[in-house]
Fold:
Amino acid sequence: MAYQLKLLGGIEKQLRRLPTSDMARVVEAMRSLPTDPRPSGAAHLVENLYRVRVGNYRILYAVFDAELVVLVCKVARRTEVTYKDIRGLLKRARDMLGSA
Structure:
């Protein structure tokens, strides 16, 4: 069964900041997540938070199996701050899912 793809607030803005060619690859990877929420190469970070690499960029997302939802939390170039406050991202994801 396919999952529903949702975006945490601010993801569209993060995508618009990417170069066009990179944005297309990142969006394609995001669109594939509902059919395969844990693709090969995806890294499990904490609890239900995962990361997938797309070139120099990282897509951080949460998988909620009971609700059949994949929630994209962050799209960013890999830097020292990419994984800063991942527990905060997970909390925001849970809060959004709870209010939906």
